[in-house]
Write a structure and sequence with these properties.
Layout lengths: L8 E4 L5 E4 L12 E5 L4 E4 L12 E4 L5 E4 L6 E5 L4 E4 L12 E4 L5 E4 L2 E2 L7 E2 L2 E6 L4 E7 L8 E4 L5 E4 L2 E3 L5 E3 L3 E4 L2
Antiparallel strand pairs: 1-2, 2-3, 3-4, 5-6, 6-7, 7-8, 9-10, 10-13, 11-12, 13-14, 15-16, 16-19, 17-18
Amino acid sequence: MNAARESHTATLLPSGHVLVAGGGNMTGTAVASAELYDPTTGTWTMTGSANGVPAFGGFAGLLSPGEVLVTNGHGGYAQLYNPSTSTWTNDNSGHTGGNQGQAVTLLGTGMLLTCGGTQGVYPRKITAISSCDLFDPSTSNLVSTGSMHTARDTFTLTVLPNGQVLAAGGETQDNKGNFFYTNSAELYTP
């Protein structure tokens, strides 16, 4: 790659190229750039900085119109990348992706399910959350879809063959605010 990075996103595009966006470098500074990998030539090409491509822990998902939704896992914004024009635009739907450690998955309906994560920034109190939202990229609508039974962050969301979504593992908190790993799991039915 042109920029060394970690905790970035990587999305396979319909063209066969891979979009790599955001992340951080070894000093903990956000890498505000994105690049495309061409597997046929083995080359990397810069493809812009989207008004601050997401920092560490973001999510990227290919949407049905062919655009890529990229969220910032450390709170605040989401952007759309258009592979046909190599341009970035702000996603003004209200889908901020604003929770660090959240999990996001693309449902078979084309909607994005976003759950959990943490709110707050150290040294202030950090709280694990359980709320979930559905984002419809065709209408740019974001709606709440209830909450998980367990507040958790840095966990996985996996769409199962029957369409349900498995939320598994991660970290949760006790009543004193101490984080600990959990082996719990739960199902979401769209």
